Structure formats: C-alpha cells, structure tokens
C-alpha cells in the first residue's frame, strides 16, 4: 500500500466540509515535449527519484531518532524536523558527497528537491508512518522500521494554481509540466489514445476544470513511477470529485438495462415499469450505419485497387497504400466519435432514469466478448457495448449508484412474472417470429404472461439477485449449466 489512507484524510480535511471521493488514474508518459530528449528526461527523473528516496528515508530515521530522544528523556518533546529543513540538509549532504554544483542547482537553490516534491512527500508518504503510535509499535517490535525503496514513486503537488496541471494542446496532445526541478520544467506528452472510454471521460473532466474548483474533478497530486518490467514511466493522477448526494438512492430499487432488438436500450425498474425514450438516438444510429457502409465501400475499393476519392482534408503528400487508407481512418474516427456521443447520451439517460426513480442499483447484461449476442440488436455487433459499460459504471459511481454486470444466461427467456424459463424462446424462435420488423413477443407457457421480449428481459434484469433466482429455477426445471 502506498499510504492511501493518509491521502484520504488529507484531502477531506484540507478541501472542504463537503464529502469528496478520492481516486487515481494513470497515464503513460509518452515522450518529452520540446527540446528535451528521452535520455535527458530519464536522467532527470532518476535523479529526482534518488533524491526523493534519500529524503524519505532521512525523514523516517530522523523521526525515529527524535522519538527515541524524547522517550529516553533526553529531549523535552517529540518533534520531527520539517521536510524543508531536511531537504536543505540533504542538499548539503549531496554537496559533501561531491555532486557538482550545476547538478545541485538544477533542482533547487536551497533544497535537494523543490517544495512541490518535498511537500507531498511528507503529506502522502511520511506523515502517516512517523507518528508516536507507529514509533511505539516499532519499539515494541510489533512493526518494523519503515523504509523506502529506490524505485519509489515521485510525488508532485499539482493542486495549486501556480503548480502546473494537465493541459490540452492545440494538436490534441495532453501535456503537463513537471515541477520536479528548477525552471525550465520538463514538459511531457501523455499517452491518451486507446485508454478506454471511462478514462477518456475522466481526463476530459479533469481538463475541463481549469480552475480546479470544487464542483468538478480536481487534480490533487501526481506521482511519477517507473514500471519495473518495462522501464516505462507513468504519471499517476490523484484527483477528487464531489461525493454523490446520498440518502435518495434505494439499494432495493434496481434498474435493469437490456440491449434491445427494437430499441437501443430497454430500461425497467423492479418496483414498477417504465421505458426509456429511445427515438432521440435514431439520428446517431443512422449516422453510424451510414459511416460504416462508407468504410466498407472504401475498403472494397482499395482492395480492388480502384480510384479512391481523397477529400481536401486528407490530400497529403505521399503515395501508395497509406495515402489510400487515410480516408478510411478519418471515417473510422468519425464513427468512434459518434459511438462515443451515443454511449454518452445512452448512459446519461439511464442514469437520469435511475435517479428519477431513486434506484440504488443498475444491472446490465455482461456481454463482453459476446459479439453474437449483439448481432441483430438495434445497433448491432459493432456497437461499443464495453464502452457503454464503462460510461455507465463511472456515471453510476458519481451518483452513488451501484453498477452490476450480471450473467446474461436466460435473462431473455425467463418469465419476469412467475420465473419460469421458457427454453424454447431462443434466438432462432425470436428471429422466426418477428412481425413487421418487430421483435417476437414473449409468452410464458407456465402462467400465460405476455410481453414485449425486450421489456420482459429488462424486467428480469431489474430483479434483485437475478443470477441466483435463475440458477434455482434451472435446478427446479432440470436445466443444465450448458443449456443455452
Ligand atoms: Zn410466467
């Protein structure tokens, strides 16, 4: 553990009386920005880390010594040296060890590392392990003297306006200035592609909150850490956000979300029923399908070696396949963007629905990796269902709603009224019984309950402990695990 409890208490007591949730996300440091080379940046990071490591261990042994002096009556009080003082001492120690003056000055004119590094080092890593209780444990032998390893993370404070924070550049890159030394600070580009929808959304919120104000996501501290196996450097971003208003969400009210065959999402709640307005998503769905058709057409055209229209925006110099593929890439980016917008709208609607009904739980089918299950649904197998899950999950968390992905087995074949599993109501049956493009209706052979198939599935998903109920029902009906 890296002292997470310390962070929590620090954030909540410093920030505001209002409760906030502290979280961490990490992004890879892709490369140095500007003039600096990777070898220069790597050296600077390793130098900083070495100083942080020395400073952390110095602080711990100092505190131990002071406690010992106090306990044995040789000093009047237990008082650990502050980090600024220790940082100055460490600088002197490094000078005595023969570190060149310009190397020393690269960091701070007075200390081994600047306040932006020594401050959070104390707040996050040292404070919690250098209190009297901890030292008593060490002396009694119930705990060992804590030490830091050379590969420890470098903490950097970034919650004050003068401290540099994440910045979106004009070309779309996300950069940050690392205040780990004296100016000019090293500037790095972070990897923001392929990080997943949830992380992208969080990053967007961090970037939007330029004033770092309390209503949004606030950057608190960075940690720079090198991954041992790959030697790659990562930036860990500790941020906080307002805790959801509690008291309204009822853990017994469950919203079930079904991927519909006639609608994008069918939503139901367990203590009644309602449906999500879905027509608003028609336009985006049409756009995505149109773009996908275009992509396929371009790919076929390229395969045939035929002429490819290169639009103005993509007419770059260069020849060959790469140039021909460019329009497809651009189409693909547009599709990605449209999916993202669609998933944002869908997840926001589900959350609104859940909030309106005071639901404490959202249950969805866990269809990850099951492309087949999505074939024939409103938007089809290409729908980024995983991304929708991620969006739903973090938005649910923000609103104090639990997100659960449940096993989809039999959720569309169980009667939501009496619990009987209608094994015959499978995909083949449903496809064969479509009427006027509408999905087949679910009819229960046991109790006669009849409903729209999507609605019936959503009602099942809105049932508490649905997986256990289905399992028990399977046992009653003698259905084996592999009956699908
Ligand atoms: Zn029934």
Walk me through what this model shows.
The protein is α+β, with helices and mostly antiparallel strands. It has two domains: 4-242, no CATH class; 250-279 and 341-477, Nucleotidyltransferase, domain 5 (2-Layer Sandwich), CATH 3.30.420. The protein contains 14 helices and 13 strands. It has helices spanning 4-15, 38-71, 83-96, 101-105, 115-126, 132-140, 197-208, 282-303, 321-356, 371-374, 385-398, 427-432, 453-461, 466-477; strands spanning 20-32, 154-157, 167-168, 174-177, 187-190, 218-226, 233-242, 250-259, 265-269, 359-365, 402-406, 441-443, 450-452. A seven-stranded antiparallel β-sheet has the order 2-6-7-1-5-4-3. Strands 9-8-10-11 form a four-stranded mixed β-sheet. Strand 6 and strand 7 form a beta hairpin. Helix 2 packs across helix 3, helix 2 (38-71) packs across helix 5 and helix 9 (321-356) packs parallel to helix 11. It is elongated. Residues 1-16 and 308-318 have low confidence and may be disordered. It binds zinc ion (ZN). Zinc ion (ZN) binds next to loops.
């Amino acid at each position: 553990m890296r002292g997470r409890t310390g962070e929590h208490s620090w954030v909540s007591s410093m920030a505001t009386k209002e409760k906030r949730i502290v979280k961490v996300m990490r992004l890879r440091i892709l490369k140095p920005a500007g003039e600096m080379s990777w070898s220069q940046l790597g050296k600077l990071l390793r130098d900083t880390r070495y100083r942080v490591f020395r400073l952390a261990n110095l602080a711990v042994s100092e505190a131990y010594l002071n406690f010992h002096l106090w306990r044995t009556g040789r000093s009047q009080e237990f008082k650990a040296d502050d980090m600024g003082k220790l940082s100055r001492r460490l600088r002197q120690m490094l000078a005595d060890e023969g570190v060149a003056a310009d190397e020393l000055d690269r960091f701070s004119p007075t200390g081994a590392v600047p306040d932006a590094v020594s401050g959070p080092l104390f707040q996050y890593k040292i404070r919690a392990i250098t209190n009297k209780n901890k030292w008593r444990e060490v002396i009694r032998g119930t705990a060992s003297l804590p030490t830091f390893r050379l590969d420890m993370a470098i903490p950097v404070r970034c919650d004050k306006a003068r401290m540099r924070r994440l910045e979106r550049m004009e070309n779309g890159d996300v950069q940050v200035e690392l205040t780990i030394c004296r100016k000019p600070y090293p500037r790095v580009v972070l990897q923001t592609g392929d990080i997943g929808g949830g992380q992208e959304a969080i990053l967007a919120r961090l970037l939007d909150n330029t004033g770092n104000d309390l209503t949004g996501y606030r950057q608190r501290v960075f940690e720079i850490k090198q991954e041992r196996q790959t030697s790659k450097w990562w930036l860990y971003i500790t941020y906080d956000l307002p805790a959801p208003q509690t008291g309204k969400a009822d853990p017994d009210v469950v919203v079930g979300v079904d991927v519909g065959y006639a609608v994008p999402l069918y939503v139901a709640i367990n203590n009644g029923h309602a449906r999500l307005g879905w027509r608003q998503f028609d336009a985006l769905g049409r756009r995505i399908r149109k773009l996908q058709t275009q992509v396929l057409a371009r790919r076929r055209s390229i395969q045939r070696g035929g002429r490819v229209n290169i639009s103005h925006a993509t007419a770059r110099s260069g020849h060959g396949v790469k140039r021909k593929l460019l329009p497809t890439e651009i189409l693909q980016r547009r599709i990605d963007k449209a999916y993202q917008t669609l998933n944002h709208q869908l997840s926001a609607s589900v959350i609104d629905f859940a909030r309106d009904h005071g639901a404490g739980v959202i249950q969805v089918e866990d269809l990850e990796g099951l492309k087949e299950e999505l074939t024939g649904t409103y938007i089809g197998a290409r729908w980024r269902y995983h991304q929708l899950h991620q969006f739903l999950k973090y938005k649910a968390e923000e609103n104090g709603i639990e997100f659960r992905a449940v096993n989809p087995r039999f959720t569309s074949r169980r009667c939501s009224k009496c619990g009987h599993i209608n094994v015959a109501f499978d995909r083949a049956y449903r496809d064969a019984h479509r009427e006027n493009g509408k999905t087949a209706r679910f009819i229960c052979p046991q109790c006669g309950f009849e409903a729209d198939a999507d609605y019936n599935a959503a009602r099942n998903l809105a049932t508490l402990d649905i997986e256990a109920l289905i399992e028990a029902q399977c046992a009653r009906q003698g259905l084996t695990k592999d009956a699908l």
